[in-house]
# Entry
Amino acid sequence: MESRWGPLAQYDWSVMAPEFTILIVATLISVIDLLMPNHSNRRPLAWLGIVGSLLAGWFVLQNTGHGVVEILNGSYRVDAFGNVFKLIFLAGTIFTLLMSINYLNRGGVKEEEKVVDHGEFYYLTLTALLGSMIMSSSADAITLFVGLELLSISSYILVGTRKKHLLSNESAFKYVVSGSIASATVLYGISFLYGLTGTTNLFEMADRLGQAYMAGNALLIYIAFFLTFVGLSFKISSVPYHMWAPDVYQGAPTPITAFLSVVSKAAGFALIIRFFITAFRSVVDYNAANGPHSVLISELLLVVGILAAISMIVGNTLALRQTNIKRMMAYSSIAQAGYILVPFATLTSLIFEQTVFYLIAYLLMNMGAFAIIMIVTGDRETEDIRSFAGLYHRAPFLAIAMTFFLLSLAGIPISAGFFGKFYIFMSSLVMGNYWLAGIMIATSVVSYYYYFGIIRQMYMRPGETEAPLRVPAGIAVIVLIAFIGTVGVGIVPDSVLNFIHANFPLMDLIEAAGQ
Amino acid sequence: MSGQFVAFFILSLLTIGGAVFMISLQKVVHQVVALAFSFLSIAGLYVMLEAEFVAVTQVLVYAGSISILMLFGIMLTRHDAHEDTGRGKFKFLAFIVVAAFFVLVFMGIQTMNIEGTPANFSQQNNVLEIGKLMFSQYVIPFEIMSVLLLVALVGAIILAKREADDK
# Structure
């Protein structure tokens, strides 16, 4: 079809409406920020960002249910897998922006703890969101990498926005250095794949990688897989690339810590699942002694399972020793990354439902927990766990909500986190991975100790003050939504799982367009 | 032994040598010069692969602007070259890991077997083909790159600027 506007106009660009919305809103924010008087409050910009994210979410919903749409020779595809991840990112970003409004405008903050550039803070949050949305729905290594870098660079800057704060500077620097090394590792891995297949399109790569394997390039394919996986494990903060997490989580402004632990991590999972399942699914060993078998399932994912197990062990045991609440949450998030890797490592046909269910539960409980952490640590001016002492007497609802979030993170019935873990646990049992299931149970029990440490502080330790804790409206809304979500998903987990299954047929991840 | 092989050998030696010297040299200026050698030799490798446009871009961007920018940065900042000696204990471990990795990759490359015929670009106009691809199939990454550059610019400004009220 020839049109007056050239070949580019023949694509259905409306499928990119969510991305365009975020891009336009981000641009608007930076322009309006420029035109606003210097000392006026930047709060309206955040509301603009929230409205834009809601609008983008509406566009994503419009895109769902139409099967797979590909544009630009399949380098960008809109499918249920990408859509469900985009909804998670958008929800996480809305929570982050709500928290940021309160974080940036709270009173009584020491000079060096302040973030000066409010407008840029909101702008960079949206560009990070744009990067993760690009990551979740592209099927071309170049587009994936550019999205990954947009997310990474925006987050490096956001981590360092408290620029007079020594810890924040240190954490931003560590984040940049380790992030660049991780990106280089990913690129190195992808370059091997490109060399073997001569294409960056994941679907063409899948076909040719199978041939390349049979032609005797097994070793290089293994090397490429592990390099790429190691580099990408930086984004989900799992072993072997987890060492940055505690320092960065501690030094970053609390809303950004929440963003990193939810949106950035979910984006990492979206990329890992799409990339490896799409590109490696047809690497089949036909010459094996016991019949043809998939190399991805039988060999590569075993190592992923081992790394997931190490993540759980390292995260949960090191969290026991922490006294800083944000550091503790960092180790907890390393352990959670280990749990979420289990469905990928065991690879049943329910992998997408299980991963997405856990990520939704994780989004709700983590965002709620970080909102409360932000309020409490901001009020007590310390990030020590003891800042939670006597919270039950100061703000009963907050303490009860926090209890539920922590129980959910620990995976105790009846909560969203319990069922997330339960489904994952079942999948590893079904696949006969008893050792992985055993490690999951054992490390979960270990994790009770530090989660209950906070609960003990809230109910049983006398605080330094009994004064009621004032909760700003925005934070109250986040806590309420997260609370209702965590409890609600915990009460009707099957309906949520069925809803995901019915509305987001995630298997079209590997289907061609138009089916 | 063809002339191409000799050229490849020299260029790759310079590339790797530049990178190694970049790490082991002590003075910052020397490091940048070593890095510039590495960049230029990579440009030479691109020429050998018949990717002239990429080679010229490599010279312009890396060897030209980035090295010069680094030298400017060094000249405009104070840096007292002092040796740090405390990293000897991990040296052996690092050596083992790097050596093992080298052996693995070397074996992988030795056993590499790519089917099909090599591509022939000699008859095509490099710049034209790159332009066509960049503005059709790769238009999304191209546009996202502009957002990425803007983000980097904004980030550099807000992290480095001096506030109006703390002179």
